[in-house]
Design goal:
The structure holds 2 protein chains of 2 kinds. Chain A is α/β, with parallel strands linked by helices. Chain A has helices spanning 3-22, 29-41, 65-75, 88-97, 102-110, 114-117, 122-131, 138-148, 180-187, 208-211, 215-220, 243-264, 285-309; strands at 52-56, 82-86, 160-166, 172-175, 197-199, 202-206, 225-229, 268-270. The radius of gyration of chain A is 24 Å and the shape is globular. Chain A starts with a helix and ends in a 9-residue tail after the last helix. By secondary structure, chain B is mostly helical. Among the domains of chain B are: 126-207, Tetratricopeptide repeat domain (Serine Threonine Protein Phosphatase 5, Tetratricopeptide repeat); 223-289, Serine Threonine Protein Phosphatase 5, Tetratricopeptide repeat, CATH 1.25.40; 292-353, no CATH class. Chain B has 19 helices and no strands. The chains are: A alpha/beta, B mainly alpha. Chains A and B meet through helix 1, helix 2 and helix 13 of A and helix 1, helix 14, helix 16 and helix 18 of B.
C-alpha cells in the first residue's frame, strides 16, 4: 500500500475513532437527571406534587410480591397518597398503610400458612364439597388485627380503600371506613371457598370478581398518577387437570379482559414475575418478595420520571 | 484560522506516526507468513510421522493465530484421519476443531466436536466449561447452567464454574442466586468482570455495604478508574457524599478521560454547596464530551445560581437542542420557560438592550 494512501486512510479512520472514544463510557442522561431532581421532588409538600395512587391487584399467594414493591417505594421515598387494593392487595395494603416496618412485614409473609388466615386445608376442602358447607376466613380479620392492631381506616397512616363484591347484586363495594381487619376479610373472601362476609344487609365476597385491578377506583379519587402492581396468573402455564383448577382457570380467563382494560388506564404497571406461582402456594414467600422488589426496581426510573413530568414547577432551579 | 492550522498539523503528524506503525505491523505479518512457509517446507521434509505430526500441530496453531481457520481445520481433520492416534490426542484435536468453529461463530459444529471430545473423556471439566461458556455467550441460560452445574458436580472447588453460574443468573436478573455463587469464589481468583457483576447484583438489591466490601477486597491490589467510579456510585447510593467524592477523585487519578466521573463529581460539589468547583467539573466533562444535553442543563442551573442569567439561558437552549430523550427535552423546555419569565432575567435583558 503506498505511503500517502495509508496516511489518507488513517486520517479517515482517526476521525471515526475519535467519535467512538467519546462514547466508550456509557452514560444514561435520564437517570442522572432523575437522580439530581429526585433529591428535591421527594421533599416537596403534597400540594406541590401530583397525587400518586398505588393500586394493588389480587392474586392470592402471588400477592406476597407486593411486599418487595413496598420495600423499593419506601427506600426510594416514592410518595403514595392513596392505596387501593383487591383481595390480597387489600391485605398487603392494610399492612403498608398502617406503617408496619417492611422487615416485620417480610417476616410475617415468610411464616404465613393457610391455617393462620382461614380453616382452609385439604380435608376441610373435601368436607366442604361433601357437606356444601363453605369455609371461613374469619381468622384473616383477626390475623390482620393481631399484626397492625384493631384499628379503623381513619387511623391508617396512608388512606386505604378495599374493594369487595356484593354477591347478590354484583356491585363493586368500596370499604374505606370502620374496622380495617373486617374490610380486608370481606375483600379477600374467595367466592365458592369462603363464606361471604355480612355487611350492612349485604353479602360481600372477593373484589376480584368485579375489579381485580381497581384502577377505576383510583380514577374516582382523582389520581394524577396511577401505579399498578399486577400479580395475575400466567393462565397459559396453569395445570387444569382437576375440577377446582378448571374452575379457577375459568375465573382467570373471565377476569383477564377486564384486567387489561384497567391496565391500559394506568400510568405505570409493575409486573413481578410471579405468573407461574400458584395462588395457594405460600411456600416460596422469600423468592416471591424478591420478584416484587426486582420488578419495582425496574420500573423505578419510569415512576420517578412520570412524577417529575407532572410537576408544573421548575424543580431544577428551586 | 490559526486554531484550524494547528489542528490540521496535529492530525497530520498523528497520521504520520500511525502510518509508520502500520508499516511495522505489516512487516510483522510478513515475518509471520515467512515462518508459516518455513514450517510448511519442514513438514514436507520431516523424517518420521512423529516429527511431521508435531510440525503440523505447530503450523495449525500459527494459522489460528493468523486467523487462517480453513487451512487449520483441514490440518486437524487430516491429523484425525491418521492411524494409531492416541485417545488423548484425538480429544485434543476435537477440542481444537471445536475452538476453531467457535472462533468462526459456527456454534453448531463447535458443539458437535466438543461433544465428540466429551465422549472420549466423560468427566472432562475443560470441555464442559467451554460448552457452558458458549451457551452463556449465546444467551441460552438453561443449557449453560446445566454444563456449569456438571463441572461443579465433578469439581466442587471450580471457581470458574461458580463464576459461570453467577453470570448465568445475573444475566437473567436472578440476583440472589447469582450472589450465592459469586460469594463462593475465592477472592484471590476474582477478575474485574466478575467483581463488577457481583457488585451490580448487590446494588440491584440495595445491599450497598456488601457491594463495597467486595470492591474493597479486589481493589486492594487492583486500582482501576472504573472500579473507583463504581465505588463512588455506591457511596452516593448510601448518601455518603464525601466518601463518594474521594472515590471519584481517585477515579480521575487513574483515568483522566472518564466523562461520567466529572459529571458525578460536579453533582457532589453541588450537593455540598461548592458551586464554583461544580462548575469547573462540568466544564471538564464538557471538554471531554459536549454532546450530552444534561451537562448543558446543569451548567444552566449553576449559571442561574451564580446570577449569570444570560449564560443560564444560553445553556438551557443548548440543552434543548441537544436533548436526545423526551424527558431531558421537557426539562430543558421547563427551564427555558422559567428563565423567560424570571424577573431578574428580564431586567438584565432590558438593561442589555
Amino acid at each position: 500500500m503506498p505511503f500517502i494512501r495509508k496516511i489518507f486512510l488513517i486520517l479517515v479512520l482517526s476521525f471515526f475513532v475519535s467519535i467512538a472514544i467519546a462514547y466508550v463510557y456509557d452514560f444514561d442522561e435520564d437517570v442522572f437527571l432523575i437522580d439530581s431532581l429526585w433529591r428535591k421532588v421527594k421533599t416537596l409538600p403534597k400540594e406541590k406534587r401530583p397525587k400518586v395512587v398505588l393500586v394493588l391487584g389480587g392474586g392470592g399467594a402471588r400477592g406476597i410480591s407486593h411486599i418487595g414493591v413496598f420495600r423499593v417505594l419506601y427506600e426510594e421515598q416514592i410518595p403514595i397518597d392513596l392505596v387501593v387494593g383487591t383481595s390480597v392487595g387489600s391485605i398487603a395494603g392494610a399492612f403498608y398503610c398502617a406503617g408496619l416496618p417492611i422487615e416485620n412485614f417480610e417476616n410475617i409473609a415468610k411464616n404465613i400458612h393457610w391455617k393462620d388466615i382461614s380453616n382452609f386445608s385439604y380435608p376441610s376442602l373435601i368436607s366442604m364439597f361433601l357437606n356444601e358447607n363453605l369455609l371461613s376466613n374469619e381468622k384473616l380479620g383477626k390475623f390482620v388485627s393481631k399484626n397492625i392492631g384493631e384499628i379503623n381506616f381513619a387511623q391508617l397512616k396512608v388512606p386505604l380503600i378495599c374493594v369487595a363484591t356484593d354477591l347478590n347484586t354484583g356491585e363493586r363495594i368500596l370499604l374505606r371506613e370502620g374496622s380495617v381487619g373486617f374490610a380486608v376479610r370481606a375483600s379477600a373472601a374467595i367466592p365458592g371457598i369462603f363464606k361471604p362476609v355480612e355487611y350492612r344487609q349485604r353479602y360481600l365476597v372477593d373484589g376480584g370478581l368485579v375489579e381485580n385491578i381497581p384502577v377505576n377506583v383510583a380514577k374516582i379519587f382523582n389520581a394524577d398518577i396511577i401505579i399498578v402492581v399486577s400479580v395475575a396468573a400466567d393462565i397459559t402455564k396453569n395445570n387444569i387437570d382437576n375440577v377446582f383448577a378448571t374452575l379457577m382457570q375459568a375465573i382467570y380467563i373471565q377476569g383477564k379482559t377486564l384486567d387489561q382494560e384497567n391496565l391500559d388506564m394506568s400510568d405505570i404497571v409493575i409486573y413481578p414475575d410471579v405468573g407461574e406461582i400458584s395462588a395457594f402456594d405460600f411456600r416460596n414467600a422469600y423468592k416471591t418478595i424478591d420478584k416484587g422488589f426486582i420488578a419495582a426496581k425496574r420500573s423505578l426510573k419510569n415512576i420517578k420520571m412520570t412524577i417529575i413530568n407532572k410537576i408544573t414547577e421548575n424543580v431544577l432551579l428551586e | 484560522m490559526n486554531k484550524i492550522l494547528i489542528c490540521f498539523m496535529f492530525i497530520f503528524s498523528y497520521s504520520f506516526v500511525c502510518a509508520i506503525k502500520l508499516d511495522e505491523i505489516s512487516s510483522l505479518d510478513k515475518c509471520f507468513l515467512k515462518a508459516i512457509n518455513e514450517i510448511s517446507v519442514k513438514v514436507d521434509m520431516a523424517k518420521n510421522n512423529k516429527e511431521k505430526t508435531k510440525l503440523l500441530e505447530t503450523l495449525a496453531e500459527m494459522l489460528i493465530i493468523n486467523k487462517q481457520y480453513l487451512p487449520a481445520l483441514s490440518i486437524y481433520n487430516n491429523l484425525l484421519e491418521s492411524k494409531k492416534i492416541p485417545k488423548r490426542k484425538k480429544k485434543e484435536y476435537y477440542v481444537k476443531l471445536g475452538d476453531i468453529y467457535k472462533l468462526e461463530k459456527n456454534y453448531g459444529f463447535s458443539l458437535e466436536y466438543y461433544h465428540k471430545a466429551l465422549l472420549l473423556y466423560k468427566k472432562n471439566i475443560d470441555v464442559r466449561f467451554k460448552i457452558g461458556n458458549m451457551f452463556l455467550k449465546n444467551k441460552l441460560y438453561n443449557l449453560a447452567e446445566k454444563y456449569f452445574l456438571e463441572v461443579l458436580a465433578i469439581n466442587k472447588n471450580s471457581d470458574a464454574a461458580k463464576k459461570g453460574l453467577g453470570d448465568v443468573y445475573s444475566c437473567q436478573n436472578i440476583d440472589t442466586k447469582a450472589i450465592e455463587y459469586y460469594s463462593q469464589i475465592n477472592p484471590k481468583n476474582y477478575d474485574k468482570e466478575t467483581v463488577v457483576s457481583f457488585v451490580n447484583c448487590y446494588r440491584d438489591l440495595n445491599r450497598f455495604d456488601d457491594a463495597i466490601k467486595v470492591l474493597d477486597i479486589f481493589m486492594k491490589e487492583n486500582k482501576d478508574t472504573e472500579l473507583f467510579f463504581l465505588s463512588g456510585l455506591l457511596f452516593i447510593d448510601k448518601k455518603e457524599y464525601l466518601k463518594a467524592k474521594d472515590m471519584f477523585l481517585n477515579s480521575v487519578q487513574y483515568g483522566e478521560s472518564n466523562f461520567r466521573v466529572y459529571v458525578y463529581l460536579a453533582l457532589i460539589y453541588e450537593l455540598t454547596g461548592e458551586i464554583q468547583k461544580a462548575k469547573t467539573m462540568y466544564d471538564k466533562a464538557y471538554s471531554i464530551n459536549s454532546s450530552y444535553a444534561v451537562v448543558d442543563l446543569m451548567q444552566a442551573k449553576i449559571a442561574y445560581k451564580m446570577n449569570r442569567f444570560y449564560e443560564a439561558r444560553r445553556y438551557a437552549y443548548n440543552a434543548y437542542v441537544k436533548a436526545k430523550t423526551v424527558f431531558v427535552k421537557n426539562q430543558a423546555q421547563k427551564m427555558i420557560d422559567f428563565l423567560r419569565s424570571d424577573n431578574n432575567l428580564l431586567s438584565i435583558k432590558d438593561s442589555v438592550k
